[in-house]
Amino acid sequence: MIRFEQTFMNFLLHHQERHKRTYHFLILMDALISAAKHVEHYYLTGALKGNLGLAGDVNVQGEDVLRMDQIAQEITVHYLRASGRVIHAVSEESEKIIPINTEGGRYFVYFDPLDGSTNVPHGLPVGFLFGIARRNMEGPEDGHLRSGKDYIAAGMFVIPTGAFTLALKNAGTWRFHMDEIMDFVRPVRMILPEDTKEWELSFNPANRHAYAEKVQSWIEQNERKYAFRYLGALAGDFHRILANGGMFMYPAIVNHPDPRKNRPQGKLRLMYEAAVVAFMCREAGGTAVDETGTPILDIQPKEPHQRTALYVGSKPLVGDIARALLG
Ligand code: FBP
């Protein structure tokens, strides 16, 4: 007996119909799905094709560019351009804002086509993260960078696991899995569990003594209550938190023995990392704050690659550490 699954596109078509929305968003999502599948193919074959190494360049963040970063960037920009629906894009792999379909575009896309760079040389899980905002439909559009609360959707592909999670404004966070014909199917609504028994903490333990004293003492008081997991790729770590509950955090680094390694403004990028998971977390019943306890979704970006500290996950835990941060 063949088991037939609901496909992502069928799910989205019904969503658009239910909310009397247009086909434009479908075309954009189709482009992002095609881009992610193409990136997954190159990643899966990367070791044999010698694509998991360095490209020889340095990016805007001062980091060595990986060959896969270039491939993922090229693929994603191609599909966004082909959609004809994107005014401009912000990408981790491009210093400047990328003009796409400036005439006639409808959306802004903020993306990181291959997040979790330390996992790439080993072919371990990485993320394709994206946030989408819509242009001003009532009046002139000034193209300003949008804060997370203005996103209409955000999502992530955990590559190469075939897992895709998408949050739609006021319509929840949904997880899909790739089937045998590379379709994303079987939508499952993700709600952060209230039951704390599966809750996890996720942070880089190598940095814990360089966090603010308040954060270090919060970890000491709470770490024995929860399991600990850390993959070293935001998409993978947040994928777990969405299912099990708990909190992922990448706090500010302020007490590093080598002051040059301090990151008082945080490491993760606001627009295409922190705001993406914060949006997905809100739609799943959770929340996210920065080092000052400010909601991540309320932070207005001043520049495309602005960094932030990030605490994201179950409301009671994020609320608790926010009180400690404000204390
Ligand atoms: P990249 O975009 O350079 O990969 O940095 C982001 C990231 O890899 C996140 O995915 C992950 O959560 C974090 O940095 C890991 O940082 P660290 O190796 O310092 O723990």
Walk me through this protein's architecture:
By secondary structure, the protein is an alpha+beta fold. It contains eight helices and 17 strands. It has helices at 8-18, 24-44, 46-49, 67-83, 213-222, 234-244, 270-283, 315-326, and strands at residues 54-58, 64-66, 86-91, 98-99, 107-115, 126-134, 151-159, 163-168, 172-178, 184-189, 200-202, 227-228, 246-250, 268-269, 287-289, 307-308, 310-313. The strands form four sheets. Strands 4-3-5-6-7-8-9-10 form an eight-stranded mixed beta sheet, sandwiched between helices. The radius of gyration is 19 Å and the shape is globular. The model has no long low-confidence stretch (mean pLDDT 95).
Summary tags:
alpha+beta; 8-stranded mixed sheet; 327 residues; globular; 5-stranded mixed sheet; 8 helices; binds 1,6-di-O-phosphono-beta-D-fructofuranose
> Which ligands, by name, code or SMILES, are bound?
1,6-di-O-phosphono-beta-D-fructofuranose
Q: What form results from the Cα inertia axes?
A: globular
What is the helix content?
25-40%
Largest sheet: 8 strands, mixed
Query: What is the number of helical segments per DSSP (H or I, 4+ residues)?
Result: 8
Count all strands and give the number.
Answer: 17
The parts where pLDDT drops under 50 for at least 5 residues are: none
On the 0-100 scale, what is the average pLDDT? Answer: 95
| Oligomeric state of shown chains | single chain
The SS-based structural class is alpha+beta
Strand arrangement in the largest pleated sheet = 4-3-5-6-7-8-9-10
Order of helices and strands: HHHEEHEEEEEEEEEHEHEEHEEEH
Percentage of β-strand residues: 25-35%
Report how far apart the termini are.
Answer: 59 Å
Radius of gyration: 19 Å
